[in-house]
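Any chance you'd type out a single protein's sequence alongside its tokenized fold?
>
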Amino acid sequence: MTGINWEDPYCGEGNNCFRIGTDDHDNAYIALAGQEDHYLTDSREALRTLIRDIKAGKADHLL
């Protein structure tokens, strides 16, 4: 497997910090900062859709 290129952590107020990464095979990854060896993976397009939906408030009911 090609290495994952992790972005800087994103930290919400008082919440866990998350990291998003990509690889050379068009895969995207998300993990808790410091626990990058336990990640979720999907396509980059799926990650884009997730982020757009969260920004649009479609996941607010989960909070």
